[in-house]
Specification:
It is a single chain. By secondary structure, the chain is α+β, with helices and mostly antiparallel strands. The chain has one domain: Histidine kinase-like ATPase, C-terminal domain (Heat Shock Protein 90, 2-Layer Sandwich). Helix content is about 30%, strand content about 30%. It contains 3 helices and 5 strands. A 5-stranded antiparallel sheet has the order 1-2-3-5-4, covered by helices on one side. It is globular and about 50 Å long.
């Protein structure tokens, strides 16, 4: 397989509303199949994206967007969800949401920092990264 690094990773931005989640799920499903993930692995990755995006939605202002980027290397598929939130996202590793994410994918990371966007309230730039290891065929 030849990877041309000059092409950007597939990325899609949608309005930060629940009725747009099906678009993110479709992107992840399509890219998962493209990278030959097993059907169960694709389903797990799609569920993880849905859970992570729903977590971000609970904290995003109404005019915000969510961006989903899907990348792969020879050993894994990564999904990066980014958004601007009006509060820090709960990072408790004992929360049910975090447990679900850790069960569905091999690695999950949450990064958040104050946004550079000026406004009447403090905003946060939040990134959730989900990684799934590609399993070798037996």
């Amino acid at each position: 397989m030849v990877v041309d690094e000059s092409f950007p990773l597939p990325s899609l931005s949608v309005a930060a509303t629940a009725d747009q989640l099906h678009i993110l799920r479709a992107l992840v499903r399509s890219r998962g199949r493209h990278h030959d993930l097993a059907a169960d692995a694709v389903a797990d990755l799609v569920l993880a994206v849905d859970e992570a995006a729903s977590t971000l939605l609970r904290h995003t202002p109404t005019c915000s967007t969510l961006t989903c980027t899907v990348g792969a290397d020879p050993g894994s598929v990564s999904v990066i969800l980014t958004g601007t939130t009006s509060a820090m996202v709960d990072t408790s590793t004992t929360s049910f949401s975090w447990f679900v994410l850790q069960t569905l994918v091999d690695s999950v990371a949450l990064e958040q920092c104050p946004s550079a966007v000026a406004g009447p309230t403090e905003m946060w730039a939040v990134t959730v990264t989900l990684d799934m290891t590609l399993k070798a065929d037996p």
